[in-house]
Design brief:
With 729 residues, the chain is α/β, with parallel strands linked by helices. The chain has 20 helices and 30 strands. Strands 11-12-10-13-14-9-15 form a seven-stranded parallel β-sheet, with helices on both faces. A six-stranded parallel β-sheet has the order 16-26-25-17-24-23, with helices on both faces. The two termini are 51 Å apart.
């Protein structure tokens, strides 16, 4: 083998390829770890990330290619970030190079240098604004922008989060000479608009503050409306004073602008970076880089934000920690909440997991004293009380498009009081089924084991699993009968019914169909705040985090399906969903009530819900799970195989299972067909690995990876994936 010379330096580099290894390259100069580099790979030039130095290459030196260019003069990525990604790849058993690159903004994956963000221009109204009339109160977003510009200097990004068309308004104000501008400087002072905390909030805040600069995991269990956000703000203020950064994770994008506005109002001079998939590529990159270089003190984002490089992390907050949205369900299948705990531990900082309905895993860890439980039992507004929950039995009752007479009467009374009603149904479309009344044939997706959902307004049938669409057939594909009918109820159908039943009511529907356009949700939200809507119809999009002061009645229909689901997590998800949506009612001084229709009002889940008693429900569910050996008592890793032919997918996993000798205490189950057998024209089989010993479980599946890669040569058209701690079964 060729001997090393003093001028040769070797580096292990991550590349965006589905391979479980790093690649060794050489360069004449030292390169800081975390640097992006341009490298030859096969016949192409690609981007790599320098992960570690290699002083003893295990391959012949004359076969080691050279790094062609260092793309970034100053590395973007820290050693802490590299450790996070390496742990992620190891724990979730994903190719290491793909793990690194799947966490990056698009521009950082390109084989080119990037331009670092300039300090943004800030805008504020000058004295001439006193001669202008402010927007009318009904233009809530525009008025918020106006008031923000009057009170302090704000950036373009901040303005856009207050009003989606802020750029054009700023241009208009500049043309009229109403704005002063300045370049943003690093701030040494922050203004914190204090709010008096109640005793429970003070106790919770102080418990976390006592552990600033050391790791401790807190579970903040607070009823809906208990003021968890004010606790977060108290902690953020303290960490900013320590000149450290705060990372806050939210479950869904549509909560981010609303929450951002509250953060900006509270910390008016702090530099805030927002990260989620709906902002522009350039904006995302700039915010990402500002977080990396320490310019941004508060970073707010959805699950991918857990991978943001940070210069000086001092606190992590995971709001609605129970939410399934924190689990990525394709490619790199990570759980952002779990990674947040690992990251907090490695950074010696506290982490707060907040929820009114904690995940059973988190609740179990609190019961086992692994997490410290902090409890908020009272609503933050002293005159506000929890809504009364009434269970409406639908046994042997005639329903009107899913509504009982009692519910319709209450909606009418609420309309008379001019108070807002929320009708909740977590099923979009007009009807979930189109059926032939002659032969009973149900129209299913050509590509999935799922029924086609009828969307009446678009006169289309849609599959909610693969997004396939088709026209409504004129006759039954099986028998030719033209008498087809829709069965079941979706949000579109109840919207039509309520329009007919309450013809003068102002009704808005909120689901992924109606808020697909960029500004749709902003417009609806503004209308709600301005009391221009009487009845809101919505899916789970409306269940999370929204605060509508005039909302006094929540009605929930079609709740029973999850009680008897094959998914052992279904009752937990249902309880959380119902508790969250119930908590939207009566959050201000308006008395709230919730009407839940069910055929099983005596079921323990509904009885605990009626009493707002999450601990009672959690104790009952944990008892069942522990007795059956389900998580959190045991741990699971699954390997899924997909092919157009189920027999091939099954044979692949069977051959794999037979080739593995599991570690002691590890059980292999399957292969079995997945609950949803066919998705996007591929049939799916699953192999379960279970154990109460997480370490032995990982060792077993790690050994299986070599077999997977070997077997794949004989199953070239098959796709397989590994899912650690899966939600889907």
């Amino acid at each position: 083998m060729t001997h090393l010379t003093e001028s040769q330096l070797f580096f292990d580099v991550a590349v965006d390829k589905p391979l479980y290894q790093l690649f060794t390259y050489q360069y004449l100069k030292d390169i800081p770890l975390g640097s992006r580099v341009s490298i030859p790979f096969g016949s192409k030039k690609i981007t790599g990330i320098v992960i570690q130095k290699n002083t003893h290459p295990k391959i012949a030196l004359n076969k080691i290619k050279s790094i062609e260019q260092v793309l970034d003069p100053t590395p973007i990525f820290t050693s802490e970030w590299i450790s996070l990604i390496q742990f992620t790849a190891t724990y979730y058993l994903y190719p290491i190079g793909q793990t690194f690159f799947s966490t990056l903004p698009v521009d950082l994956k390109q084989n080119k240098s990037i331009q670092h963000p300039k300090k943004p221009l800030l805008y504020q109204f000058n004295a001439k604004i006193n001669d202008e009339k402010p927007p009318q109160a009904r233009h809530q977003a525009l008025l918020a922008l106006w008031n923000a510009l009057k009170n302090s200097f704000i950036s373009l990004d901040e303005a856009i989060y207050l009003h989606p068309n802020a750029k054009s308004y700023l241009k208009k104000y500049q043309t009229k000479g109403l704005l002063d501008t300045k370049i943003e400087n690093n701030l040494s002072q922050w203004q914190y608009r204090t709010k008096t905390l109640n005793q429970e909030q003070k106790t919770a805040s102080q418990a976390v503050i006592n552990h600033i600069n050391q790791f401790k995991c807190f579970l903040l269990f607070g009823i809906t409306g208990s003021g968890k956000t004010e606790v977060y703000f108290e902690l953020i203020n303290r960490v900013i004073q320590e000149k450290k950064q705060i990372l806050m994770l939210l479950p869904v994008i549509n909560l981010t602008p609303q929450f951002f506005a509250r953060v900006k109002e509270t910390f008016s001079e702090a530099n805030i970076a927002v990260l989620h998939s709906k902002i522009s590529k350039r904006q995302r990159l700039d915010n990402y880089l500002n977080a990396s270089n320490g310019t941004a003190q508060i970073i707010i984002g959805t699950r991918l934000s857990i991978f943001t490089p940070l210069k000086n992390l001092g606190l992590i907050i995971v709001d609605e920690e129970h939410d399934d949205s924190f689990k990525q369900e394709n490619d790199l299948r990570y759980n952002a909440r779990d990674l947040a705990i690992w990251r907090a531990q490695k950074n010696d900082c506290p982490i707060v997991l907040g929820s009114a309905t904690p995940s059973l895993e988190s609740w179990y860890n609190a019961c086992q004293k692994k997490y410290t439980l902090l409890t908020l039992t009272n609503r933050a507004i002293s005159q506000s009380t929890l809504p009364e929950i009434h269970l409406i039995s639908t046994k042997n009752k005639i329903l009107h498009e899913g509504f009982s007479d009692e519910v319709l009467d209450q909606i009418q009374k609420n309309l008379s009081k001019k108070e807002l009603t929320l009708v909740y149904l977590n099923r979009r479309g007009y009807a979930p089924t189109i059926v032939c009344l002659d032969c009973g044939h149900v129209i299913e997706c050509d590509y999935c084991s799922a029924k086609m959902v009828y969307h009446k307004q678009q006169q289309r049938l849609k599959c909610h699993h693969c997004e396939h669409e088709q026209k409504i057939p004129c006759a039954c594909p099986k028998c030719g009968n033209q008498d087809l009918t829709s069965l079941g109820i979706g949000t579109e159908r109840i919207e039509q019914f309520l329009h007919d039943f309450f013809p003068t009511a102002r009704i808005a529907r909120v689901d992924s169909d109606t808020i697909a356009n960029k500004n749709a949700w902003t417009d609806i939200y503004e209308n709600v705040l301005n009391d221009e809507i009487d009845i809101l119809i919505g899916t789970q999009i409306l269940a999370k985090g929204h605060d509508f002061k005039n909302l006094s009645l929540v009605t929930v229909i079609h709740t029973d399906g999850s009680l008897f689901s094959a998914d052992y997590r279904a009752p937990e998800k249902l309880f959380s969903e119902l508790m969250q949506v119930s908590g939207r009612a009566g959050r201000d001084r308006t008395k709230g009530q919730v009407l839940i229709q069910t055929q099983f009002p005596d079921h323990p889940l509904f009885q605990a819900l009626k009493k707002h008693n999450y601990p009672e429900f959690a104790e009952q569910q944990l008892s069942e799970r522990l007795s059956l050996g389900f998580p959190p008592k045991s741990h699971r890793i699954v390997i899924k195989a997909e092919h157009i032919d189920f027999n091939i997918a099954e044979a692949f996993l069977k051959e794999l299972a037979e080739s593995i000798i599991p570690e002691p205490e590890v059980t292999i189950i399957g292969p079995l067909p997945m609950t949803m057998l066919k998705v996007a024209n591929r049939e799916r089989a699953i192999l379960y690995f279970e154990s109460e010993n997480r370490g032995l479980l990982h060792q077993t599946v790690k050994k299986a990876i070599a077999q997977l890669l070997s077997l794949q040569n004989n199953y070239r058209t098959l796709k397989w994936t590994i899912d650690v701690d899966p939600n889907e079964t």
